[in-house]
Structure formats: structure tokens, C-alpha cells
């Protein structure tokens, strides 16, 4: 446990701050980079919109399950906390470090690289951004800028988040509005497919992995539970409100894409579906405006990686699952040493200058760990019936059982259709499990 004489995390976040964090981290690289990939796999506009809706439903149901645990355990660390209370320190170790090393570390680095790429697109040749060391160097500079911002304390970083998230929502709504108002419904009207082939199970699996990447982060506000005012009532509002808000925005933006472009045209795009959709309505001159808008969206999204991840490391350190130094908080309420480590890791990954970090690999690891965490809901209901639960999952036990069944079904499909990917993710998680067993045994913690 941390020394009570040391500075502690401060309760300063309200519902609006938590919503800004949720929307801020979720809407970013996913919605900018995945719509073309998803259109190529699903091919049909009705199926495309249906899968985006399905992804939102899964996120919303998951949020309700986590909201009960977050309200009962308002501690810094998010899913790590829930896994630890439900399954013991070893599984808490796996949940926490899988997020630090894989899902959030790679996500933060990919956003920094994409920000760097967009900067080069804005100031450079319209043919594209350069590849190689310069993109990585600028991405590393982006990471350094975020590090310096977050050393100023939570109040400064959340104020920045609130402002950039408000800008982001306005931009998303504007892109959606102009696309819907000015488009000719080419995608929705024709219902044409990219090819004559029906969508197979692999196509659905690949599309869902991209969609789940775009939604990922709906639970990030829970990492800052110790800094939320009245967490028992505020956290459920933040988690569910954030998930619903993101789903509505995603459906609107995808409708606007399909009004302006066919699925085939979306599939031909790489990271610039929004640019192409706007250009289809207003001409090529709109491309620069949308690039600037996309850059602002990414800046807001990447900021939350630096808000949430140090607090996961902080939570791990407090329970002996990470070096004790990561549990120290400075006078401004920032887990400074954890911020150092996280920024260094993200910066190292970003220095590669490669955006082609494996989304499918990241999400296979993430979905597996999330399944374990969500199963902890039933374990806590069975082993801790006396636990004070300011918020209770509605529809118990049916709705939480359906939620977990969906996760298991998705995992089975991923393993069935992508066995090599599943093997790689499984080996990484096995390595973390072994490291967790060694660490918890050396600490005398619960296995």
C-alpha cells in the first residue's frame, strides 16, 4: 500500500470530465483508419451499419457490467482492479500489464505516428507523407509534448481534454451533417457490394476486430475512479453515457460516408475515408480542412492514453505488481514516475514511425483479457454478496450472461478463422501469466 504521508490522487473529476475522457479516447485513430477496412470486408451498407451498431451494443452491455464493479471498487487502475478483486493478484497482473504493454501502449504510439503523418500531409507533398525516421522523430516529439502537459497535473490535462473533446464532437457532427446533406446517397442508395462474394465468417471477424478497436476505450474513465467526485453515482453515468454517445456519433459518421461514397469507394481508401467523402461533396479543396479536423480529433484521443495508462501502472505498483516507485504521486496529484515509464514506452514504439501495428493482434489480446474481467462480475456476485454496490447491473443474471456469451463467441470465431494470430496472442498472454505467478509468489500475494 502507498504511504499515507505521500501525496495522494485527488477527487476533482465530475461527470462532464469523465464523459470528455471517454469520448476523447474512443473517437480517434479507429474511426479515421478503419471504415475503409471494414467496408472492404463487409461490402454491403446495411451490414456495415449493422456491425457498427452491434459493436456499440457490445460496448454498452460491457459498460453496464463494468459500471457495477467500478462503483463498488472506486480505485485507480480500471480493469486491473476488477480482475484483482475477482481473481487475485496474478490475474490482476495479467490484466494490468496486458493493457500497459499491448493495448494502450501500442494504441498511444499508433496515434502519435498518425498525428505525425497528418502533420507531414498538411505541410508536405500532397502525394503523401514520408516514411521512415522523420515520421518517427516527429511522433516522438508528439509524445514528449504530451508528457510535458501531464506533468502539470490532472486539472491542466483534463481542461485540455474537455476543450479538445468539445472541438472533436463539433467536427464529427459537422462532417456527418455536410456528408448527409450534400451527398447523393451513392453508397446507401445502390446497396452495391465491393465484390460478388458473400461475406464469410472471416470477413465478419476481421471487421469486428477493427470495429472493436474503434470502440476501445469506452471503459477508460474507470482507471481514474479515485479521482472522480461521488464515484458510486458518477461512474455509471460516465461509462454508459460515453458508450452511447460514441455509438451515436459513429453511426452518424458512417451514414455520412455511405451517403457520399459507395462501399467500393470506401474500400479503396486507406486512412482518408473522411477526406474522400468530403471531397466527393465539396471537391478536393476540402481535403485540407478535413485533415486539420482529423488532426484535432487525434490530438484529443491520444491525450487520454497519457491520462489513463500512468494510473494503471500506479494501481499495479500499490499492490506490489510493479516497481514501488511507480506508485509515487507528486504534489500536483500526478503519478509522475509512472508517467515517465509510460511516456518512454510509447515514445519507443512511436519512434519506429510505423502505423501498421497489428490492430487484430491488439484486439485479440484485449478481447481475451476483457472476457476474463467480465467473468469476474459473476465471481464477485458469488463470493462478495455483502459488497456495497451503489450501482447494480440491470437484468441480472440474463444481461450480463448474454454479454459474456457474446465475448466468448467472438473469441471462438477469431481463433477459428485466425489460428496463427490467436496462437501469438495466446503466447504473449501466457508469458504475462507466468510473470504474474512469479511476481505474486515472490510478494506472497493472492494467486
Question: In brief, what are we looking at here?
Answer:
With 447 residues, the protein is an all-alpha fold. The protein has helices at 15-26, 29-33, 35-42, 45-72, 79-87, 89-123, 133-150, 154-182, 186-190, 201-215, 231-260, 263-268, 273-282, 287-318, 336-350, 359-383, 398-417, 419-443. The chain has a single domain, classed as Amino acid/polyamine transporter I (Up-down Bundle).
Task: Please explain how this structure is put together.
This protein is an all-alpha fold and 447 residues long. The chain has one domain (15-442): Up-down Bundle (Amino acid/polyamine transporter I), CATH 1.20.1740. 73% of the residues lie in helices and 0% in strands. The chain is built from 18 helices and no strands. The chain has helices at 15-26, 29-33, 35-42, 45-72, 79-87, 89-123, 133-150, 154-182, 186-190, 201-215, 231-260, 263-268, 273-282, 287-318, 336-350, 359-383, 398-417, 419-443. The model is unreliable at 192-196 (pLDDT under 50).
Please name the defining characteristics of this protein.
447 residues, mainly alpha, Amino acid/polyamine transporter I
What are the SSEs and their pairings?
Elements: H1 15-26, H2 29-33, H3 35-42, H4 45-72, H5 79-87, H6 89-123, H7 133-150, H8 154-182, H9 186-190, H10 201-215, H11 231-260, H12 263-268, H13 273-282, H14 287-318, H15 336-350, H16 359-383, H17 398-417, H18 419-443
Helix pairs in contact: 1-8, 1-11, 1-14, 3-10, 4-10, 4-11, 4-17, 5-6, 5-16, 6-7, 6-14, 6-15, 6-16, 6-18, 7-15, 8-11, 8-13, 8-14, 10-16, 10-17, 11-13, 13-14, 14-15, 16-17, 16-18, 17-18
